[in-house]
């Protein structure tokens, strides 16, 4: 083992999404636009919730934290992928590769728990409305966010504890645009197929169980909504639908990649693009388009910003 570690690969080669120069230019432009829109959209939601007193409620507090995680999830690999489109040789150091695995599992693990917290918030608001302010206090909301990050950290450390001690002394080519556990551990110099399947599938099973719990909670909420007034029912249904779309977009690719690892790397690459680039972009769109309160607050903030800029613009008169 010492001999293996001494000759450990110092870098990995990333094959990226495509070898076609035309497609690389197209992807560079497309993903650059998506990345900027993702950062601006989520930042807008974060600032809107922060500076709008009407949105200082548990649901929007959790939503603003989701926007923060989405910005992080979109940034751990996307900027490097965009820059690599024009690189002749796409490489990443061993330390950089391990860092990408660390941040990927930190942010995805955190988002899983946060989505469960948001589901819990909607369940209490709709099924136990009289106890909502007591149960979902500021202290509880802060505790849910701290718990989300703690679970994410523990999850990623459990994955790295397995990966760091693997000997990498042979092939160093990764058929993706970033380092992920199923791809990296295949490059180890020892046979880890059974152990690797167990470790990676554990992440998939956790994601699958979390998704089933969320699905169950939303079914209960939808059944409860039937007994509400038409106006309240419509608003609650819109909110829950937005939440569930986010859940489906996030958990779908994760479950496919980690429940059945080492199966279809082309599909894994496509799904990786989806949950690292498209999902963080669609989250703010879904919440702003389907949530009237957020939409109104965003419009008000943008209009106030526009008016303030107009007032500060110097005016010149003809002499």
UniProtKB/TrEMBL annotation:
Keywords: Cell membrane, G-protein coupled receptor, Membrane, Olfaction, Receptor, Sensory transduction, Transducer, Transmembrane, Transmembrane helix. SUPFAM superfamilies: Family A G protein-coupled receptor-like. The keyword Metal-binding does not apply. Signal peptide: none annotated. This is Olfactory receptor. The chain crosses the membrane at residues 25-52, 59-78, 98-120, 140-162, 192-225, 237-260, 272-289. The keyword Hydrolase does not apply. InterPro entries: GPCR_Rhodpsn (IPR000276), GPCR_Rhodpsn_7TM (IPR017452), Olfact_rcpt (IPR000725), Olfactory_Receptors (IPR050427). It is found in: Cell membrane; Membrane. Belongs to the G-protein coupled receptor 1 family. Residues 41-287 form the G-protein coupled receptors family 1 profile domain. It is a multi-pass membrane protein. Pfam families: 7tm_4. Putative odorant or sperm cell receptor. GO terms for cellular component: plasma membrane. GO terms for molecular function: G protein-coupled receptor activity; olfactory receptor activity.
